[in-house]
């Protein structure tokens, strides 16, 4: 049961999986006190022809900040606008990747008492290459109230470092808010970047743990992820500053979207909830019931009827059918905190009473805390060097085989030693060795996909060829040699790594397994991970690594 651990870190979601191209689309990142910083928005022109600031006049009650753009220049007036007009631009996250022939949907809210003639363009980072343009023209008072504007922009060129421009050569005051630019070709139409999520789908994950670890906690509870503020219309979500990883997220990628992603990938969602504990403050157990009810409401949104309070929110977002939820993790890496156990027990018994089939994960990491409370699973995190990762293949060999005790959920493992680079082949092998250890111990580790075929473990790293005799018994059907394959992941150098320039420098190679059968002589090349996939008659397959 290998899956994905997702955390909003290093813009994995905002600017990553989530396809929104505009950074700080609601002008809220600078805070609620105005005037405020509008970074990364910048002006086109200078202070003689445009004044840009923020005020609290938005039509959205939870995010009141809007952009006020006063254009001082005009065509033929005393102050002449620069070529193309004055206005603002947004570079997105490190430049927008605009591709020729693709269509992008612009949505924004506009208000003005004056006649408006706005040009909306996709350009190169210096504004000189025009990739797509559309115009918004209104008479005076037509948009005196906030008005939603939607446009489709078809790119006539490609530029990986593009920006969105909103300009005018007409004097007046214009307010803008909630400016969004999304590609139309998102994954299954659900707002995720098609290329990235397609690669995730190729991994065939069986679960996705979200929305993170420390991101869920926050440095302070006031900045923790709050699911209620991430559901409903995206324009009405206030967004928040993730104070652990130090950047703003508009929460377009929210609780509902994570559930949709899990469903699209055919993966079980593992919902990590805040248990009233952050890195620096914690709720006393005597006052935790409000947090417990908040957690119950989040599960109610998943499973309740579409005409109920929370089920109607789910239905309004396009999913009248319930989502399936099997796993809930109660907190993250905080088992040593003063109020952890007391808070945990409040959550555990309340959730079990309402949803007895949900598997609850204790964040007791064994090496740090004692598991002295009920749990279906216990969390295990491993951050270590590649060399140590190899030895951790034996981590669970001596674990008690009690039939009643909770199994391990190895929800975070990472080689972060000196040899990891940007993701070296050595690091990949080290983690593969650790995962093989999990599979061998799948009776005590919930994450292992199935029981192993072999009783003997071969050395997991070496510089010599290994001659191996494989004998398979107990198959229900004969081996189909014509459909059997061998897949090898190896490279000339252990420090090789993939990059944007060479994305397939280290990649698995698949070939036909010529001597496939129940008895085989095979050769394992040095520093490699090799999979033998035996095709059986009809539709049954057995895999051995």
Which class do the helix and strand fractions yield? alpha+beta
How many runs of DSSP E, i.e. beta strands? Answer: 26
Main sheet attributes: strand count, strand direction, barrel closure: 7 strands, parallel
The spatial strand order of the largest sheet comes to 1-13-16-17-18-19-20
Rg value: 27 Å
How many angstroms does the end-to-end distance come to? 15 Å
Estimate percent helicity: 10-25%
Overall average pLDDT: 91
- Percentage of residues in DSSP E strands: 25-35%
Q: Helical segment tally?
A: 8
Shape: globular
List keywords for this structure.
non-reducing end alpha-L-arabinofuranosidase, globular, signal, alpha-L-arabinofuranosidase activity, 6-stranded antiparallel β-sheet, alpha+beta, 545 residues, 26 strands
Structure explained in plain terms:
This protein is of the alpha+beta class and 545 residues long. Helices cover 15% and strands 28% of the residues. The protein contains 8 helices and 26 strands. It has helices spanning 194-202, 214-217, 255-265, 289-303, 309-316, 340-354, 386-391, 425-440, and strands spanning 4-5, 42-44, 50-55, 66-71, 86-90, 96-98, 103-111, 116-124, 130-138, 147-154, 159-168, 172-183, 207-210, 240-242, 247-249, 268-273, 327-330, 359-362, 377-384, 407-415, 466-471, 485-489, 509-512, 519-524, 529-535, 541-544. The strands form 6 sheets. It has a 7-stranded parallel sheet. Strand 19 (377-384), helix 7 (386-391) and strand 20 form a beta-alpha-beta unit. Helix 4 packs across helix 5 (309-316) and helix 4 packs parallel to helix 6 (340-354). 37% of the residues are buried. The model is unreliable at 448-454 (pLDDT under 50).
């Amino acid at each position: 049961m290998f899956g994905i651990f997702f955390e909003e870190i290093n813009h994995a979601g905002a600017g990553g999986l989530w396809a929104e191209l505009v950074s700080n689309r609601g002008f809220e990142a600078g805070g609620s006190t105005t005037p405020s910083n509008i970074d990364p928005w910048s002006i086109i022109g200078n202070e003689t022809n445009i004044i840009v600031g923020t005020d609290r006049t938005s039509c959205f009650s939870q995010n009141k900040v809007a952009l006020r753009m006063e254009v001082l220049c005009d065509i033929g007036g005393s102050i002449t606008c620069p070529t193309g007009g004055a206005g603002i631009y947004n570079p997105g996250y490190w430049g927008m990747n605009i591709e020729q022939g693709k269509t992008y949907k612009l949505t924004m809210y506009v208000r003005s008492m004056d006649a408006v003639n706005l040009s909306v363009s996709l350009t190169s980072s210096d504004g000189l290459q025009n990739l797509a343009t559309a115009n918004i023209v209104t008479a005076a008072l037509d948009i005196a109230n906030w008005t939603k504007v939607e446009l489709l922009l078809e790119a006539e060129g490609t530029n990986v470092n593009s920006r969105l421009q909103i300009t005018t050569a007409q004097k007046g005051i214009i307010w803008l808010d909630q400016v969004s630019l999304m590609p139309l070709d998102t994954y299954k139409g659900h707002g995720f970047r098609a290329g990235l999520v397609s690669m995730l789908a190729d991994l065939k994950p069986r679960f996705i743990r979200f929305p993170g670890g420390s991101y869920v906690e926050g440095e302070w509870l006031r900045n923790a992820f709050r699911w209620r503020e991430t559901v409903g219309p995206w324009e009405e979500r206030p967004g928040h500053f993730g104070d652990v990883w130090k950047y703003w997220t508009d929460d377009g990628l929210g609780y509902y979207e994570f559930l949709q992603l899990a469903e699209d990938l055919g993966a079980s969602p593992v919902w990590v909830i805040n248990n009233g504990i952050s890195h620096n403050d914690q709720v006393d157990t005597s006052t935790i019931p409000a947090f417990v009810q908040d957690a119950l409401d989040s599960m109610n949104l998943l499973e309740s009827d579409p005409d109920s309070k929370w089920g109607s929110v789910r239905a309004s977002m396009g999913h009248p059918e319930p989502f399936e939820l099997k796993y809930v993790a109660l907190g993250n890496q905080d088992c040593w905190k003063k109020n952890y156990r007391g808070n945990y027990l409040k959550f555990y018994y309340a959730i079990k009473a309402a949803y007895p089939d949900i598997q609850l994960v204790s964040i007791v990491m064994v090496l740090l805390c004692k598991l002295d409370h009920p749990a279906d699973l216990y969390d295990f995190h491993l951050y270590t060097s590649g060399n140590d990762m190899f030895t951790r293949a034996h981590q669970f060999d001596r674990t008690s085989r009690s039939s009643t005790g909770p199994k391990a959920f190895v929800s975070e493992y990472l080689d972060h030693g000196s040899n990891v680079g940007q993701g070296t082949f050595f690091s990949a092998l080290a983690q593969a060795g650790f995962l093989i250890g999990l599979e061998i111990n799948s009776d005590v580790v919930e994450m292992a996909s199935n029981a192993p075929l072999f009783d003997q473990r071969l050395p997991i790293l070496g510089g010599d060829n290994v001659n191996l005799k494989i004998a398979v018994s107990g198959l229900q059907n004969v081996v189909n040699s014509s459909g059997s394959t061998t897949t090898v992941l190896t490279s000339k150098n252990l420090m090789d790594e993939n990059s944007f320039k060479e994305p397939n420098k280290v990649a698995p190679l698949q070939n036909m397994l010529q001597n496939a059968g129940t008895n085989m002589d095979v050769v394992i090349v040095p520093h490699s991970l090799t999979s033998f996939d035996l095709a059986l008659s009809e539709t049954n397959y057995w895999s051995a690594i």
